[in-house]
Every structure is written in structure tokens, then in C-alpha cells.
Amino acid sequence: MTMYSPRSTFDRHLQRLTDEVLVLGSLVEQAVLKSVEALSRQDRVSARSLYHQDQYINERRYAIENECIVLLATQQPMGRDVRYIAGILEIITELERIGDYAKGISKITLLMDDDGEPEAMEVLQRMANIGLVMLRRALAAFTSSDVAAARAIPPDDDAVDRLYNKLHDRMIEVMLNDHARVNSANYLMWAAHNLERMADRVINICERVVYVNTGEMKELDTPNGLEDLKR
Amino acid sequence: MTAEPTLNPAIEARDISLYYGDFRAVKNISMTVEQNKVTAIIGPSGCGKSTLLRAFNRMNELMPSARLEGEIRFMGQNIYAPEVDPVRVRRQIGMVFQKPNPFPKSIYDNVAWGARINGFKSGIGTPSMDDWVEHCLRKAALWDEVKDKLRQNGLSLSGGQQQRLCIARTIAIQPQIILMDEPASALDPIATLKIEELMRELIEEYSIIVVTHNMQQAARVSDYTAFLNMDTDRAGTLVEYGPTDRIFTRPVDPRTEAYITGRFG
Asked: What is the residue extent of each domain of chain B?
């Protein structure tokens, strides 16, 4: 049903903002994907270029933030509109931080002093893949206002956590057995930590999707925090 | 309709419907207005906001065809009960209108008039009229601007000052509730903010019900917001009523959402 809306101009602004969030999302996704690839191939040229590309992600994020502030000041949005813009402000912060993780992984590639463990590289790839699928689904849930889809994503974080724990244990073993590899094992642990945090930030995005569409502000984390400690 | 505030009622509408002749302008509204708070009534043109506001001090009766069903309870009494004097009701529940309407008299006399109709007599233990006029002008945040020209005509003031003078005149009658019908719609943004700031100060002593077309004003100034809308029979109904912060960020009714986001009809 098409209906005259006295908010057509504002709606176009919101649509453009949404498109820009998706562009930022795909830039971040590419950054994570490529930084993990560069790490597993020990591709320093690519890592160096990815390290510097993070600046571009930051700039895009600031541009979106600025547009949100202008809309708040000039349009005085209320109800779902103000939740939507507040949601975008939060989501772009999470995306930018995920971009920082990719940058961190690129830096690790540049710092590594050996080729690392093929087994660890494979675990990192799997963590990145799961996290990035979560990210893609979260942004799709955002654009389609699909609360059920957003709620369905956080449980996938468990798989990321399990891989992280697995890699962590393996790297401790490496460090205990081969002192020459302490440095690189430590770096790979950090890379894994970045990917684990990425999945957590995707959950924050899911929480914003729920908030924008329902007004409900609640954590969607799966309650397994303390049990991990007894592992 | 969602939950409404009920802690310390200042005034309470119980299932009221208001008619102009055969036309029902407002139907089946029940709402409790909280004491020492600002309650805003918002809604599209013609939805009965001002009609509802005027019902709270029997101002509609000044129109011969107007009629009310239901009850409005104030201090334990139905203000529409036959034994109640409407003039006394209007002293306890004052009103400030859209267009500032000071009397064509001095600033001083505008305020003193309010005091005199309330039987103000100065004497031992009570303030002098001069003190009372000063008190009311201070309460209305106007004193500093007019203290050196109290004998000037009230109409010589700016629009915003005139409106604050009308508020001072209302305060002089010592009401419990102040009704305001679009009190700032004829004022510039700064004068508007002064009125809004004044409303926040006045609720220390009074309860305020304000009708406004300006949603941002309702959001800025009120503690509770009531959204009225026209039903299919064109009678105004109360769609949603609740804390202002919730109404403007998380309204429950889709009609409220459509109205406050400007995607109405």
C-alpha cells in the first residue's frame, strides 16, 4: 500500500543511512576475512596494506555518526525512529571495533617470527568464518527488522568460544614444549582472542536489532560465562 | 489503553464524554492526573484536546450547547455535581490561554485583580498587596523584567512577558491546578523556553495540564503524556497515556507510534 507520508524526506535519509551501515559492514567483513588469510599465509604485504586500510573504516564510521547527529538535531525523531538512529550509532561502533580486530590481526602477521602452526591457522579460519556468518546474518536482521532472526544468532557464539578454548589449550602446550615458539604462540592466542571478541560484538549488534524493533534493552548472551572457568 | 499514573491524583476524569449539541467531541475518557507534575495532552487537530482540557475546570459550560457525561473528581468531589459552583472550580483550577490576554490595565493591577477576586485582604499575618504582587510576579519569572514599570500597561509587554503576566495573574488566585492551552504557540523559541522552564518551576506548588501541538514541547516539559486521537465517529478518544519518556521512545499503541513519528494516516 502506498500512502503519502509527511516523513518521506526523513525516510529517504534513514534509508541512505541503512545503506551506509551495510557498506561499512561489508568493508569490515572483508577486512577480517583478508587479515586472517594474510595471517595463515604469512602474507606481510597484504597485512601491511590491511593495517592501513583500517583508517578508511574509521572515517566511514565517523561520517555515518555525523549524519546520525545531524538527523537527531534537525529531525527530532521519536519512537522507533529515535531507536533506529540510536541503534545505528551503536552498530557502527561495534563494526568499527571489529575493524580494529582485523587491524590487530594484521599487526600480528607483521610481528610473527615464525610461520605459526598450520593447525592453529585452521582453527582461526574456522572462528573467522563462523563469526563472519554471524555478522552477515545480524546485519540482514537489522535491515529486515527481523527480531526472531536476531535472537537466533547469539547461540552460534558457543562454537566460536569452543574453538577459542581449543586453540588456547593447544598454544599453552606449544609454549610449554618449545620455548622458541612462545612468541608466535602468544600472538596466535591474541589473534584468536580478537576473533572471539568479534563474535561477542556481533551479539551486541543483535541486541540493538531487538531494541530498535521492540524497545527492549536486554543482553542476548548465552549464560555460560562461569562454567568456562571450571573447564 | 495502557497503565496510567495514579500515585497522588490531582484530578481524575471518570469515563467522561463531551458533547456540543448532538456532536460527541470526546468519548469515554478516564485519566488520573498526577499532583505536582506536568501532564501534556497531545493529538491531531480536532481530536478534542482543548475540549478535554476545558472540561477540567467547567470552561465548556460557557458554550450553551456543551454537555458532559461522566464525572471529574477533584479533592474528593465531582466538580459537575449540582451543588458545586463553577466559579469556585475555576478559582481552584486556573487556565492560561493560547493568546496572552492581559487586561488593558497596569501590570500591577493585572496581578492584583487575580488576588482581589479571590478575596485577598492584607492584614496582620498576611502579606500586603504589594508584597503579594511581587511574590506572584517572581513566581512567574517576570519580576526582574517589570519591577521598575509596574504602572505600565500590561499590553506594553512583549508576547512572552504578557503570557508570564497571565500566569502571574492565575497564580495570584492561588489555584491548585493550572490548565494551559497551547501557552507558547504564539511565542518565539526563546520566550517558549522561558515558559517551559517556568512550568518546571511551578510544579513545585501546582499541578499543570498542558495542551500542545508541539510534540517536542510535550517531550521537553511534561512528566506524563496523554495521546488523544479521533475515532471513526470523529469523537476524541484516549489512545495511550503514560510517562513521557516512554511515550516518546517506546509507545505501545501503533497509533501513538504513527503520530509521534509523523507517519500519521
From this structure: 9-260
